[in-house]
Amino acid sequence: MTERRALDHIVASDEAGERIDRVLARAHSEVSRARIQSLIEGGRLIAGGVTITDPNYRVKPAERLTLRIPPPSPARPEGEAIPLNIAYEDDQLLVVDKPAGLVVHPAAGNPKGTLVNALIAHYGDSLSGIGGERRPGIVHRLDKDTSGLMVVAKTDRAHIHLSNQLSARTLSREYAALVWGVPAPLEGRIEGNIGRSRRNRKKMDVLQEGGKPALTHYRVERAFGQLASLVTCRLATGRTHQIRVHMAHIRHPVLGDPTYGGRHQNRTNAAPSEVQAALAGFKRQALHARRLAFHHPATNEMVELESPLPADMAALENALEEAFPAT
Question: Which of these is catalytic: 14, 21, 125, 143?
């Protein structure tokens, strides 16, 4: 296998004594520190003419560091010809409008037919390598039955830049949700650490102790009587099932949510017949990633995208509007 490129760095006097992986990660921010550590351990670093395999090696002043980076290896998941709706694309990243029912990552229960499989098939040749493989860099995820916008990195540099924005909360994600009841107040914030449920390890829950901090901002856009409402949710953090868990926590779970929806058969029975029919035909949680905004990793310009409600969720909203016309 031929070498793709080499990264060179001369150790400055104020860097002397630092860990070699930290020095290289700072000098070459387009490569993740974890990737650099892996390459060092694989014998691809020469410092002062000697091969170094310990990422904890302490550098010396004026020492020349040369890190050889191999071509990206083929992605381990196989590419599959699955149709995609691309909202934005350039040589650094793409934004996909994910349909409900599509799993993001291959896993034990879904080894094939995922978004990653589709992206590898469509864009494998243009992926410059995430962690040494020709695979897409998933910056954030959507649940299988949540639809909407997701940003995906094509390069290590874009992946690091976008992931940093996610951590710094400058990558903005806004969702539309149809929920049971009408939250009060009509606008507010939901805070509560999220972690594995003590009662059911397959579910997440708001915990009094443990878990990770989570914050969701919400705003009621439209109330349909007291039966349901259309709510905008904006994530300040990105915990597993965050919106679904937080809305259930304040007793306004997302319509159609089989995991956190609780027992709402009495509400369904009290709904007008056209709403009952729409709910019976709606087979997922009514949650859609509607807006996405971030700074482009190459230009730093703001990229803002919006996705309309998909047909199934729009039909459910229409049924609610017809049953509860605005006054």
Answer: 143
